[in-house]
Amino acid sequence: MPNSSALRDALQQSPNNLSLLLLYGRACLEELHLDEAREVFARALDIDPDQTDAHLGIAKVLFMEGNTSGAAVRAERVLFLEPDNASAHLLLSRVHLSEGDRAKAVEHFDRAAQIDGTMSDPALERELGRTARDARKTAPAPTPEPASPEPAPPPGNEGDEFFDDFDDPPYDWRPETFYAPGDPERNAVTFADVGGMEELKEEIRLKITYPLQFPDLYKAYGRKTGGGILIYGPPGCGKTLILRAVAGEVPCNYLAVGLHEIFDPYFGSTERNLHQIFETARANAPCVLVFDDLDSLAQDRRQIRESQMRNLVNQFLHEMDGIRADNQRILVIGATNQPWALDPAFRRPGRFDQAIFVPPPDAPARAQIIELLAKDKPIADFDAAALIEATNGFSGADLKWVFDRAAELALSAAIHTGQPVPITLELLLAVTATHKPTTAEWFEGVRTHAQQAAPDAFFNEVRKFLAAPSPNTKKDR
């Protein structure tokens, strides 16, 4: 959060910028400049009398001044305008707790946690002896509406099969990999387990993590949550690993889609499945929606003869555009080994407009990967620098194979000698010398595509990489 003096200077240039006023008011609150905060939120209400954040800001000022009844009135006004405002419920929980009404405090706390899965207030949780995760677990299941009788089919169509309208919401469907905030299974892999790729990590934070942490700051800059990121590069360089790590990093829902959850032999079902997946993401926003092996779903329509596959691509483009639905607060991440096979329409602004090339790890990235791979292994006389130099051009998967193969050889020796045998640098270097980087074949194939493709930012990074020394040379790029 910027300090109040910097925001005050910005407001001098744009005094009626509502987002800047709200940011400045919040900064004043954090710095306990209560009179200034009250004045700023009042200015915001002069511009928009129903601005819930401004009403809530004044409510917080009143609460901090000890005027709990005034704070409650303002918070109730916010809930009248916006019934699902988690911050207003959270403030009312504090108000009721200060007035000794613990039951009401728990009620509003639970409601806030159920509305916003990313909500966290450790101090209030300690006072209530209850966590936000407990509140979400005890949320009552929604009562299903009674099913209405299906209308009779039109005369003459008794034998026709038909599908429900695409706009029907996905009541019961959930993908196999759907993680809500707080799910312990999602933290198995984080960005700390992924060597290198700092640019990609920061891009993911900019599009989904930071907007959730600093929503008013993003409003002031006119930026919104979500978008599309395409990750491409040779196999084995960590694309799938970082997709898994996103689940452990982002403070929102995470949905990873398997191809078997989309493709269907019946005509029209595949498109419907894809629509249902996007509808589920929209219903659970903020959400990260992940597609690995994107080239299987987004093929170049100029190369497709089957009408069903063309329809799938058209449906995918339609969902990415969000013409009939709001894709705000949804980050779509796609990964592919064959970027040249994608339909060019996916690379237009508003779809996968951010394309990030994931090359084989450079020396610093290999150092991180080697450190992670060497962790908790019986390694003796280890010299990371020598192994880093010997593995130039190796992918993360290649490095993992080197360690796994060396561990197998050391284990075999230990079994036959009856004594523990450590994994030595000599053994690692010997295994490395027998292995050709698997990325070499990919670069041979992509070289032709990159040279034949028209000038396109999509291939710029690949062209730069190809212009550098070969991945198999000893000199790092």
Explain the overall architecture:
- By secondary structure, the protein is an alpha/beta fold.
- The chain folds into three domains: 4-137, Tetratricopeptide repeat domain (Serine Threonine Protein Phosphatase 5, Tetratricopeptide repeat, Alpha Horseshoe); 177-357, Rossmann fold (3-Layer(aba) Sandwich); 359-477, Orthogonal Bundle (Helicase, Ruva Protein, domain 3).
- Helices cover 51% and strands 7% of the residues.
- It has 20 helices and eight strands.
- It has a six-stranded mixed sheet with strand order 1-3-4-5-2-6, with helices on both faces. Strands 7-8 form a two-stranded parallel ribbon.
- Helix 5 (68-81) packs antiparallel against helix 6 (86-98).
- It is globular.
- Residues 141-172 and 471-477 have low confidence and may be disordered.
What topology does this entry show?
Blueprint: H1 4-13, H2 18-30, H3 34-47, H4 52-64, H5 68-81, H6 86-98, H7 102-115, H8 122-128, H9 132-137, E1 177-179, H10 198-213, H11 215-220, E2 227-232, H12 239-249, E3 253-257, H13 269-283, E4 287-291, H14 307-321, E5 330-336, E6 354-357, H15 363-374, E7 379-380, H16 384-390, H17 396-417, E8 423-424, H18 425-433, H19 439-452, H20 457-467
Parallel strand pairs: 2-5, 2-6, 3-4, 4-5, 7-8
Antiparallel strand pairs: 1-3
Helix pairs in contact: 1-2, 2-3, 2-4, 3-4, 4-5, 4-6, 5-6, 6-7, 13-14, 15-16, 15-17, 16-18, 17-18, 19-20
